[in-house]
Amino acid sequence: MSSLAPNASIDYKTLVQDDRIHASLYTDPRIFDDELERIFRRAWVFVGHDSEIPRQGDFVTRHVGTEPVIMVRGKGGAVSVLVNRCMHRGTMVCPAERGNARTFTCPYHGWTYDVSGELLGVPYPGGYAAFDKSAHGLTRAPRVSSYRGFVFASLSGTGMPLAEHLGSATRLIDRSCDLSPAGQVELTAGWVKHRCAANWKALPENDSDGYHLGFVHRALFSTVRSQYQRVVGDEKAIKAVVRDWGNGHMEIDWSPGYQGPFEWLGGASGSVVDDFVAALERRDGPETTRRRILEGPAHALIFPNLFLGETNIAIVQPVSVEECVHWHTPMFLKGVPEFNGRLLRMAEAGMGPASFLMPEDLTVASRNQLGLHARTVAWLELGRGLNRERVDSEGRTVSHVTDETTNRALWRHYRAVMTEA
Amino acid sequence: MVSDAEYRAVVEFLYKEARLADEARYADWLALWTDDGVYWVPATTDPGADPDKHLSHIYDNRGRLETRIKLLQTGHRYSQEPASLMRRLISNIEVAAADDGELVAESNFILAELAVQAKREMHWWVGRTTHRLRRVDGELKMCRKTVVLVNAAEPLPNLSFLI
Fold first, then answer.
1. Are the C-beta atoms of B133 and B102 separated by less than 8 Å?
2. Do A192 and B121 touch (CB under 8 A)?
3. Strand, helix or coil at B128?
4. For B67-124, what is each residue's pLDDT tens digit?
5. Could A353 and B157 be called an inter-chain contact, meaning their C-beta atoms sit closer than 8 Å?
6. CATH fit for domain B4-149, picks 3.40.50.2000, 3.90.550.10, 3.10.450.50, 3.30.450.20
């Protein structure tokens, strides 16, 4: 168990300033260890979605930080997040990525647990004078909570509740889920995992960076027309914004630049679309429906590791100080299975190692990682847009889509988490 | 069973396709495809994978295949700029005739890729390929290429070259 206090020799208030951050935040393994403790153990971390494990015994294996866990639907239908480690000698009990199980049996000495993690039996129990099975169940994440099917876990028994961590950013999740006539998204297409030779924080920063598009993605924009074309023109003509939702959550909102419905889907028409719109109108009325199909799903980062990537859901997995993995899956809208094929093809176009966007992002991220090893210049600029960002009526900072308001949102929260008592 | 001549023609096609992909000769590689071509790299090794239900790494029809090539030709596809240095070996080639006269070739490959765009890492790609080939105006063309990577479901580095 790592210590609860951050590394005493690291002064996060100096490393994270309002308009610049220190390169060691991406390269120092001691800082990575502190992050595992303060961000990925104490705080809330996205693990998976209800729709991935619909039946009792369904499970997926994931990581909370670098901790291997099993997200499983146990007896009675409750979702548990179990540490994937036998209580006897530490063996990983479940090597599969997903499946359905009645029990988890350790291959080493046969200790067997039920799907809620309770220890059912130990072979040759005569070797123990007194053995309390109830004290040797798989360790559970002490706090598991979900919002609209998005399951989060904290490996700490204390801390702010999930609702407080999410705050008003639940509206970002709502924005995506409410596009489904059933009010639910389904993550059933499987995940693609994209390996990145960079510090994990490069991914949430890049996922919410509206400045890079016309440069990093020049190949795509010069080849194919897309909804992003409007953010690569004249600076003053760009209407999209970035927004800080607090607690490290932030978004790019393209919708002020959209001129019609379904631009986020690259356009849509036909009887399936008409039926879809009619179903939303029955639930929400015409005005709200018009707004929903214009705005589309959120492009937002829920701190620290959940990316609502418009029609995709992505997970940021830290591996080591210089390596991380970007997971993604298409966000299917329950109630409109006719959209699934299209959402699948959009996911393959946008994200993953063979897609038309992310390989460029991760190439640049890994070039960042190389550049950040220079120490002659130790600071990264973080000040873009400080001259023009504004606070809206709900207290959220908003600015031009190319401004570093999102980076500052992440780092301000990071500094608070890394320095709190 | 196919004739020795047919087997030899298929092997020559596979070798040529591999060389064009290795050497980033994008237009020449694209010319090996039929207009109804489907290029599929599943994200799982599960033989029951369905590209209409499950996410793939690549599931290109002809239109998307052309976009893939155009991106590589812009000079701004930074994940392949400069292009990776690659050589692949193809082996264990088995060829069968389909009912419709097309040929189905299965083979294994090992591909060494030096990704020179950032860290200059050596990546090893291993898998099994199924080519479906059709004679068009006397020339063999690919109408389907499916590549099942041994590590299809694991975290992969950039795969924006032609596998």
1. yes
2. no
3. strand
4. 999 999 999 999 999 999 999 999 999 999 999 999 999 999 999 999 999 999 999 9
5. yes
6. 3.10.450.50
